[in-house]
Amino acid sequence: MFKNEIVLVTGSSRGIGKAIAHAFAKKGAKVILNAATSKERLLKTYESFVAAGYEVTYFFGDLSDFSTAQALFMHIKSQFGNFPTIIINNAGISHVGLFTETTPELWNKILTINLNSAYNCSYLGTPSMISHHQGCIINITSIWGNVGASCEVAYSTSKAALNGFTKSLAKELGPSNIRVNAIACGWIDTDMTSCYSEEEKEAFVDEIPLCRTGQTEDIAKACLYLASQDASYVTGQILTVDGGLL
């Protein structure tokens, strides 16, 4: 289904990003893995993909830095002969804490990483998509970007901004046959949610109509749909995958 596609998945050494990258690689896409915190973990993920016979490369670096993102795109061109046809902007960080304890440094860090990496990759990737009159961008956001979360003001703000970015860019790039959508994740079992106690998790699940937390594969399947021809008339949408919570 995706044999001729070049798919960039940022923040893909673990968790949701890794599951998304695996789903596309399994479908025959050429996949670029990326991480910015642990090169060792990124290499381990890369080696597991190679062992599975997938066509894959990797790039270690913080893509919220524009020059680093430029280096990534040059790497992709040298490895695969072209730029990404599908970009999944997944890289991001979270923070739980009172707003009054959110320092300017922490506020700027969360917004920079969660927003600039998506901007940089989209900015560098769209010229090639426009010239080929096709392409797909998927931004991984959060339900807290839709409704806000207490003690996660900076994180919620960054994800709300990413939702606005999605809708605006979809309108601008639509005439070039480039689709831009987002997936607003609910509770997905990853390292990001491991900080909560079992009691807190159970209390959250009690509010979910499907009576369970989400798995990384749930988000990966949603990405496959949004990037496929089955969604050829879907753009500018925030697809909420949260088990019916909102």
Tags for this entry?
globular, seven-stranded parallel sheet, about 250 residues, alpha/beta, 8 helices
* Tally of contiguous helical segments: 8
What structural class do the secondary elements suggest?
A: alpha/beta
Q: Based on the structure, what is the oligomeric state of the protein chains?
A: single chain
- How are strands sequenced across the largest beta sheet? 3-2-1-4-5-6-7
SSE run: EHEHEHEHEHHEHHE
| Unreliable stretches | none
Largest sheet: 7 strands, parallel
Give the overall silhouette.
Answer: globular
What is the number of beta strands?
A: 7
Model description:
The chain is an alpha/beta fold. Helices cover 47% and strands 16% of the residues. The protein has helices at 15-26, 39-51, 66-80, 104-132, 143-147, 153-173, 198-205, 216-227, and strands spanning 6-9, 30-35, 56-60, 86-89, 135-142, 178-185, 238-241. Strands 3-2-1-4-5-6-7 form a seven-stranded parallel beta sheet, with helices on both faces. Helix 2 (39-51) links the parallel strand 2 and strand 3 (56-60). Helix 1 (15-26) crosses helix 8, helix 3 runs parallel beside helix 4 (104-132) and helix 4 packs parallel to helix 6. It is globular and about 50 Å long. The mean pLDDT is 96.
